[in-house]
Amino acid sequence: MLYTGLNSLRKGRTLRCVLDTPCPEGTGETFASNVEGEIALVPAGRTIMAQGEVRVTVRLECARCLAFHDTELQITVERECSLEQIDDPEAYSESGDDLPPIPILSGDEIDLSELVRQLVIISLPPRSLCRPDCRGLCPQCGADLNEGPCKCEAEEVDPRLAPLKALLEDR
Q1: Backbone phi, then psi, for 153, in 5-degree steps?
Q2: Which residues contact 92 (CB under 8 A, 6 or more apart)?
Q3: Each residue of 64-121: pLDDT tens digit?
Q4: What pTM was estimated for this model as a whole?
Q5: Using CA atoms, how far apart are residues 122 and 129, in angstroms rounded to an integer?
Q6: Shortest CA distance to 16 belongs to which of 26, 24, 4, 25?
Q7: Is 155 helix (H, G, I), strand (E, B) or coil?
Q8: How far apart, in Å, are the Cα atoms of 28 and each of 22, 58, 65, 157, 170?
Q9: Is 85 in a helix, a strand, or coil?
Q10: Residue 130 — very low, low, confident or very high, per pLDDT cuts 50/70/90?
Q11: CA 152 centroid distance within chain
C-alpha cells in the first residue's frame, strides 16, 4: 500500500489514498476480499490525521460450531500518524500518549500497511457466530447440532439442579 505524494503532505495539502489491495500480513486471519476504501491524510501540525473508511471480508471460525464463515468489517479510520520511517524502532518509542502516532513512511513513499493492519486487528470481533441461532456442537459426541439432533442419550440431570428442571417441566 505505497503512495507517492509525500511532497503534498509536507506542503500542508490533503492526500487521498484509494485502497483496493490484499490485507497486510500479520493479522493472523484469512481474508476473503481485498481491503477497499479511501483514507484521507490531513496534515495536523507535527502529525498527520488519517480519516476515512475501509472494509474487508474476513473468514472467521464460529465460536459455537467451529464452521468457517465470512464476516464483513466496516472500519472507520480516525487515527494520528507521523511522517517517520516504519522500520525505525524509535518511531514506536513510548511517548506517554495512549495511542502514539503510527509511522507511515517507507523510504520516500507513504506506506499505509501498518495503519491498516492495526485497524483490522482491533476491529476483529472477539467472538464470532456463523448465525445468531447457531446451536453449536453436542458436548458428548461433537455432532453439529445445526444439522439435526445427535444420537446421544439424554444426559442425567445433576441432582442439585433437579428442582430447576422440575420448574421448567411445570411450564
Answers
A1: -75, 155
A2: 100, 103
A3: 999 999 999 999 999 988 888 877 766 666 555 577 888 888 888 888 888 888 899 9
A4: 0.73
A5: 18
A6: 4
A7: coil
A8: 14, 11, 20, 41, 49
A9: strand
A10: very high
A11: 38
